[in-house]
Amino acid sequence: MKVLNLARISGACFLPGLLVASCAGAPGPSSSRVLSAEAHQALLSGDAAKAVRLDQEALARSPDDVVLMNNLAVALGRIGKKRKAEALLQQALVKSPENPRILLNLARIELALGKIGSAYGYASRIVSRDHWPGGFRTLMGKLDIDRGDYQEAHIYLHEAQERHPENPLILTYLGIVHYRIGELADSRKNFQSALALHPSPALARTLRSLLVHPERVLGGGVRGERPKSK
């Protein structure tokens, strides 16, 4: 039996348990949120192109909504349109200058574009906040690796790993830090643990290479210093 999507059929006027005030008028914020929720589900299922279409429609209905701008930028980044994502996040940041989620995603996009200094600048604006958004510690750890600040990277990544002990990417970054500071046994242990967590195929290939020939993947630059305790 075919199940009808009542929210879409009624123009997002009907939601279980809710009476939406905009039912009698033109599509507004409520319909935008329904579209955004559908876009989020599409993104989770791996259909980033569909997420982009739905997020674009949602933003067209509520063009000043920074949450929708952020969501569309994330989806655009997933399909490789990083420049468009960057421009959209910068627009959102003008409207909401201290929004930690926008700052975080803009830092991620800048890092993906190779703009390490800019990425670190945006991410650093989050540090003084009482609560950090999810993924912030991991991002800062990666930025610190790229900047060569392995002591600070170790602090952020150790905290991230305590919160997410089964995240293979965090363990991979920790392995890189340990390799860079000359803790080769710990580095290898991190890479092995990350591989045992069944990461994505791309990360798994990288981890196998790191276990066999880390110097080929990471180059030289092994240091003898140990990270200071926090």
Protein model, in words:
InterPro entries: TPR-like_helical_dom_sf (IPR011990), TPR_rpt (IPR019734). Residues 1-26 form the signal peptide. TPR repeats lie at residues 168-201. It comes from Leptospirillum ferrodiazotrophum. Helix 4 packs antiparallel against helix 5 (82-95), helix 5 (82-95) runs antiparallel to helix 6 (100-112) and helix 9 packs antiparallel against helix 10. Helices cover 66% and strands 2% of the residues. The longest helix is centred in the N-terminal third of the chain and has 16 residues, at 29-44. It has two domains: 1-133, Alpha Horseshoe (Serine Threonine Protein Phosphatase 5, Tetratricopeptide repeat); 149-230, Serine Threonine Protein Phosphatase 5, Tetratricopeptide repeat, CATH 1.25.40. The chain is mostly helical and 230 residues long. The chain is built from 13 helices and two strands, in the order H-E-E-H-H-H-H-H-H-H-H-H-H-H-H. It has helices at residues 6-9, 29-44, 48-61, 66-78, 82-95, 100-112, 116-124, 136-147, 150-163, 168-180, 184-196, 201-212, 214-218; strands at residues 14-15, 18-19. It has a two-stranded antiparallel sheet with strand order 1-2.
